[in-house]
Amino acid sequence: AEFQFDRMGVFAYSPEEGTPSAEYADQVPDDVKAERVEMLMSIQREIAFEKNARMVGRTVDVLIDEIEDSVGGVGRTASDCPDIDQSVNVHGRGLRVGDLVPVRVEQVDGYDLVGSLQEK
């Protein structure tokens, strides 16, 4: 909460064969692990949604990854990892996969951004 990560993934510990920690007698119960993961991800979700809300009205460069008839295109910013981080739904015509285009962010849809293609 203090450092406000832009992106964060949280995974519960799982013992790996051959590691010293896998042999510890007092393993953390699975329900406690799940509770801790949810607590951390809940905090991060709020941070991510707040950061996304601040993006509304800004223009960002988006790399188009796929074309969807109902939207226009779907892509990502330079800080978004494909298939892991948020995506940007881009309304506009003439988009092609591989295009790097300016997009004005108009709204937030959870972790994702929605915007319109801007003229260069």
Topology:
Elements: H1 30-53, E1 59-68, E2 72-76, E3 88-91, E4 100-109, E5 112-117
Parallel strand pairs: 3-5
Antiparallel strand pairs: 1-2, 1-4, 2-3, 4-5
Brief overview:
The protein is of the alpha+beta class and 120 residues long. It contains 1 helix and 5 strands, in the order αβββββ. Strands 1-2-3-5-4 form a 5-stranded mixed barrel.
What do these coordinates show?
By secondary structure, the chain is of the alpha+beta class. Helix content is 20%, strand content 29%. It has a five-stranded mixed barrel. A hairpin with a 3-residue loop joins strand 1 and strand 2 (72-76). The chain starts with 29 loop residues before the first helix and ends with a strand.
Sum up the overall morphology in one term.
elongated
Task: Give the class from helix and strand content and strand pairing.
Answer: alpha+beta
Distance between the termini: 37 Å
How many extended strands?
Answer: 5
Any low-confidence stretches, pLDDT <50, length ≥5? none
Q: What's the SSE pattern?
A: HEEEEE
- Looking at how many chains there are and whether they match, the oligomeric state comes to single chain
Mean pLDDT across every amino acid position = 92
Percent of residues in β-strands: 25-35%
